[in-house]
């Protein structure tokens, strides 16, 4: 105890001690170049062993959109959304951004054990790098999404630029989710085993493939619940900006913004609280 008191007296910090939240964020910002280069390197490495390389970035969600579009288009019959092919493409492509952020974020610490145990840096850098990587991957996907929309008959319009602030807000939401999942996985490794189930459940309950107003028309209270569903409202905003004659409630912007900020704050504090344990617990 005397040694600790003397160290504190002379301003000596404990190795691996958690800094204040403000210092933590500042240290992470100072490593922004490392974060970007790490994310860029991972994007380049992601599919380099595959013959089609980065083409898989857009080919995989395209195949999913076709498969789900055909199956659920038949199942829904006349209850399917207007411009259903475009509806599905937007839903599948943007939801892919969410799932890759959640799953990648969950493994951002445990999947980099050697880096975490050998170097001193804010562990927040790793989940941030994961979201940055997913954003870099999303860029060509959004471009292809617009091309598909035009091929399927959608008219280009100025509202398409609204997808930029929406993706920014969605990235904030995904960052919060990634931080929460990253810490949970450090403590409970088996969490990664149930993540696919959680992802699949959210996929089928976020309006990715169906119009809530049409499918749940007999349960108005459930439609009201979806008005506060962050993933559903994000997809609805994207569709309203891209599709022809699509409508949305302006309050949806407030819903997704509040959700995103709240999840980020909770996730950041929750992740920061365990900073000293990363590299020891995993």
Automatic annotation (TrEMBL):
Q: Does the keyword Membrane apply?
A: yes
| Compartmental location | Cell inner membrane; Cell membrane
Name the membrane topology term.
Multi-pass membrane protein
What GO cellular component term, any one, is given? plasma membrane
* Origin: domain of life: Bacteria
Q: Which UniProt keywords apply?
A: Cell inner membrane, Cell membrane, Membrane, Transmembrane, Transmembrane helix, Transport
* TM annotation in the entry: 52-75, 81-98, 135-152, 158-182, 194-212, 251-272
Ranges of residues in domain ABC transmembrane type-2? 52-274
- Pfam families, from UniProt? ABC2_membrane
First-listed, main subcellular location of the protein, grouped into a coarse class: membrane
Q: Which GO terms describe its molecular function?
A: ABC-type transporter activity
**One of the protein's GO biological processes:** lipopolysaccharide transport
Provide the family line. Belongs to the ABC-2 integral membrane protein family.
Q: What is this protein called?
A: Transport permease protein
Please give the organism.
Glutamicibacter mishrai
